[in-house]
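Student: I would love a firmer grasp of how sequence relates to backbone shape in proteins. Thank you; the sequence and its tokens follow:
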Amino acid sequence: MSLLHRAGLWASALAPLLAATLAMAAEPPVVYVQPLQPAPSERALAEVVAALQAFYPVQVRVLPAQPLPKAAWYAPRKRWRAEVLLDWLAAHMPVGATKVIGMTAADISTRKGAVADWGVLGLGTMDGKSCVISSFRTTRGVSEATARERLAKTAVHELGHNYDLDHCPNVGCLMEDARGKVATVDGESDLCSACRAKLAARGVNVPAKPAVPWRAPSK
């Protein structure tokens, strides 16, 4: 058998493997949503998934609901510590996952500067693998639809931190710091051009016109 013939046979044998490898490389990375009981409604979950898929080039898969880990319970304030939840989520990531976002209706908190226990909408590690969001503070004095919008926007914001985006000074950007005011989220709608450029530099290309599951903020 000639060397040329052998090379042809090897090429034929390797072609399916190469095609499969290229197909896997072309698939978007997988982000898992982990509902943590008590979890937000199925409709809220669906809107979070839609928002993540609208803004990031990822596949989103939902895991079966799990109880909140006891280690995260903060008895003095009857809350759950968000930074402990981040560690738990990262340690329980499914094989093949790139990032995981926990989602709960329970009150979550973390240290913020000199404040030992600061209630938050969400928390995400910078350039990390895990983030967590809570609907607990989204519902005060607003409709269920607005509460769901707030939660979905928070999901995009916290996953942005996982992609190494810091808080943005541009008003209306989804990475804007809420500064302790939940209503700040109501004025946000999209990622600004500066945040989009930062993501693009990291190989994360956001669609020019994402199909967001919320209404444009009123002027």
The first strand starts at residue 30 and ends at 37.
